[in-house]
UniProtKB/TrEMBL annotation:
UniProt lineage: Bacteria, Bacillati, Actinomycetota, Rubrobacteria, Rubrobacterales
Protein name per Swiss-Prot or TrEMBL: Choline-sulfatase
Domain Sulfatase N-terminal per the UniProt entry, residue ranges: 36-362
Record has Hydrolase as a keyword: yes
Organism of this sequence: uncultured Rubrobacteraceae bacterium
Stated family: Belongs to the sulfatase family.
SUPFAM superfamilies in alphabetical order: Alkaline phosphatase-like (SSF53649)
Class of enzymatic activity (EC top level): hydrolase
Alphabetical list of Gene3D superfamilies matching this protein: Alkaline Phosphatase, subunit A
Keyword Ion transport found: no
EC assignment: 3.1.6.6
Source species, domain of life: Bacteria
Protein keywords: Glycoprotein, Hydrolase, Signal
InterPro entries: Alkaline_phosphatase_core_sf, Sulfatase_CS, Sulfatase_N, TAT_signal
GO molecular function: choline-sulfatase activity
Length: 474
């Protein structure tokens, strides 16, 4: 399929995806004329591998779309990551580097004038958000530019007794938090998104379903409260012989070795799984609404998280670390013309969401750092980038992920290079050291690419737009 044909099918919503048998069928002329809908689902603090516990997502989105196995967050912490999703830019170009005060920083940055919703609204889309917009949002009469339907959670997001929110910027409201669907933050947010989807079946829309789950503390639906009691992550706790000499000083200082720490992290993981289950229920609710309103065939669905989470890997907890558990994100895309059941190994980033969504909608995508992934969705084997930045300047490190054809053209050199503010360096070879236990420049492949990785990372940290994208390729 060539690019023109792929985009025609994307815009028309005529990929032949199954619709509910009872749904009223539109005429071919109507389907051809309308632009596609776009649903962006973004969870909070979800380890990439936990999508294996989402049975509905597996069956209806992954089996019917493309899964990206090398998708990464821009910055592995909530506030900056959400800023990058909204703007399509790196934190070093927006100044959004902290979760504390994230909402005020985002407003003061001036970047929201070009956020993804504002761009889509300019070409006639109705734009909606439910859930967690970003951290430290307390202003109950504020609505993000571009959104004409708004149900945003307000601080305190972690209150055990109440959910606080603003609907349409009409003041602070609250509802009791409990273990039923009527008092569960994920299902309440799913209901508001469902109502929006059902009420806009005749106009193109962009909807953000951004549940706070599975962020702790954990208040799962009652039906999942006793689930996953003995589950453990598929990733190993710690490192062999407790040797962290290859890791930066901050990693060694933050490591938690005790059995009590391990048990605490396992309980945290089980709490996440319980809330991942309810997110899956929310996704099911929305897909069902799309089927029942005859919209699924012309709706793009993106599933992603803002950042990952450590559950004892390298003896670390929480996030903001340069390792896979913090930095990888699940990314699943289902939409018109997207190959069903396909897997892409290409490097992709959260900053690619805005230009991709804008290309689908026919909106302006200028002035961003990301690149559209539509070529990869058309052909999962199509080349995109060979180098990808990940940064956490607030924590004191930045990294470059490399996936480049080897000299023999028989495979790929897969490396991660991390540089800390104090000058400490780590490098990992995904083929020889997939668990990232040995961070020294030991292998011939690591040594051969050392200078390239250092130079590329230094240049990427200061680049923007076309200049940045040029650095992603040799």
């Amino acid at each position: 399929m060539n690019r023109a044909e792929f985009l025609r099918r994307a815009g028309a919503g005529a990929a032949g995806l199954a619709l509910a048998a009872s749904a009223p069928r539109r005429t071919a002329a109507t389907a051809q004329a309308r632009r596609p809908n776009i649903l962006l689902i973004m969870t909070d603090d979800q380890p990439h591998y936990t999508i294996e516990n989402m049975t509905f997502l597996q069956r209806r989105l992954i089996a019917a779309g493309t899964r990206f196995d090398n998708a990464y967050v821009a910055t592995p912490v909530c506030g900056p990551a959400r800023g990058s999703v909204l703007t399509g830019k790196w934190s070093h170009n927006t100044g959004l580097e902290s979760t504390d005060g994230a909402w005020r920083d985002l407003v003061d940055s001036g970047e929201l004038v070009g956020n993804v919703a504002a761009r889509l609204k300019a070409v006639g889309y109705s734009c909606h958000l439910t859930g967690k917009f970003t951290n430290d949002l307390t202003n109950d009469d504020w609505v993000c530019p571009g959104f004409d339907s708004w149900w945003a959670q307000l601080e305190d997001l972690n209150d055990p007794d109440f959910l606080y929110f603003s609907e349409g910027g009409a003041g602070r409201r609250e509802m009791p938090r409990n273990s039923t669907e009527a008092g569960n933050e994920t299902m309440v947010a799913a209901k508001y998104t469902e109502d929006f989807v059902r009420s806009r079946k005749d106009t193109p829309w962009f909807a953000c379903f951004w549940p706070h789950a599975p962020h702790g503390p954990y208040y799962p639906l009652g039906r999942y409260a006793e689930a996953h009691k003995d589950d453990k992550p598929p990733t190993p706790f710690g490192e062999p012989e407790r040797d962290l000499s290859d890791k930066a000083p901050l990693v060694r200082q933050s490591a938690r070795f005790s059995p009590a720490a391990e048990e605490e992290m396992m309980q945290e993981y089980r709490g996440k799984l319980r809330e991942v289950e309810e997110v899956d229920d929310g996704v099911k609710r929305l897909v069902t609404a799309l089927e029942e309103t005859d919209q699924l065939g012309h709706t793009w669905i993106f599933f992603i998280t803002d950042n990952g989470y450590q559950h004892g890997e390298h003896y670390l907890d929480k996030k903001l670390w340069p390792y896979e558990e913090s930095c990888r994100t699940p990314l699943v895309v289902r939409g018109p013309g997207v190959p069903a059941g396909s897997v892409s190994k290409q490097l992709v980033s959260q900053i690619d969401l805005l230009p991709t969504i804008c290309e689908i909608a026919g909106a302006d995508a200028s002035g961003v750092d990301g690149r559209s992934i539509l070529p990869t969705l058309r052909d999962p084997g199509a080349p995109t980038r060979e180098f990808l930045l990940i940064e956490a300047e607030g924590r004191g490190w930045s990294s470059v992920r490399m996936r480049r054809r080897n000299r023999a053209r028989t495979g790929y050199d897969n490396l991660l290079f991390v540089k800390w503010r104090d000058g400490f360096e780590e490098v990992y070879d995904y083929d020889d050291d997939p668990r990232m236990y040995e961070g020294h420049f030991d292998t011939p492949r690591e040594q051969r690419h050392a200078d390239v990785l250092r130079e590329r990372l230094d240049a990427m940290r200061a680049a923007a737009g076309d200049a940045y994208r040029a650095l992603e390729r040799s």
